[in-house]
């Protein structure tokens, strides 16, 4: 059984892209335990366990900065993580409740053939905009993951544009 993996092998095992793994290394979130003589990244079982922890925390919706703090052991407990999730969910619920209230107000006005005031219309648009921004941010994150996977499938062995000195290095 292989106890060390190159970046491409680790990417294939985890469903991440080589580009994502390089980015995690660049920001100091997840670095390889070593390098080959030719400079290729080498990961071991400990690295794999750490990456699984990172991916689990990301699945909970934590930002990379939050994940980094947790992984570095900066005083985050499982309870803290649950509380962060609860706060995010409450925020989303408040936004959706506000949107529902604005839509109900508009519906009531329109049912009685009344026109919307500029303030009512502006309030509705603002809530709809915030709701849409949150929705599209979540969709964008999902699409970025899909595009990363597609990019890997189409050109896994493409040179790394971030590494001009050794374009074939992984």
Automatic annotation (TrEMBL):
CDD domains: HTH_TipAL-Mta (cd01106). InterPro entries: DNA-bd_dom_put_sf, MerR-type_HTH_dom, MerR_fam. Keywords: DNA-binding. Residues 4-73 form the HTH merR-type domain. The keyword DNA-binding applies. One of its GO terms (molecular function) is DNA-binding transcription factor activity. The keyword DNA-binding applies. Residues 147-170 are annotated as: Disordered. Gene3D superfamilies: 1.10.1660.10. PANTHER family: HTH-TYPE TRANSCRIPTIONAL ACTIVATOR MTA (PTHR30204:SF90), REDOX-CYCLING DRUG-SENSING TRANSCRIPTIONAL ACTIVATOR SOXR (PTHR30204). This is MerR family transcriptional regulator. It comes from Paenibacillus rhizosphaerae.
């Amino acid at each position: 059984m292989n106890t060390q993996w190159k970046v491409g092998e680790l990417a294939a095992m985890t469903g991440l892209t080589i580009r994502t793994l390089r980015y995690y290394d660049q920001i100091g979130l997840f670095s390889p335990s070593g390098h080959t003589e030719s400079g290729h990244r080498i990961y071991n079982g400990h690295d794999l366990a750490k990456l699984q922890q990172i991916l689990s925390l990301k699945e909970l919706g934590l930002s990379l900065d939050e994940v980094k703090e947790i992984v570095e052991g900066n005083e985050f407990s499982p309870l803290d993580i649950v509380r962060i999730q609860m706060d995010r969910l409450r925020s989303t619920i408040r936004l959706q409740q506000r949107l529902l209230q604005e839509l109900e107000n508009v519906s009531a006005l329109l049912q009685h053939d009344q026109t919307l005031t500029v303030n009512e219309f502006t309030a509705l648009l603002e809530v709809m905009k915030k709701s849409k921004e949150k929705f599209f941010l979540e969709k964008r994150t999902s699409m970025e993951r899909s595009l990363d996977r597609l990019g890997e499938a189409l050109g896994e062995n493409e040179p790394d544009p971030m590494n001009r000195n050794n374009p074939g290095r992984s």
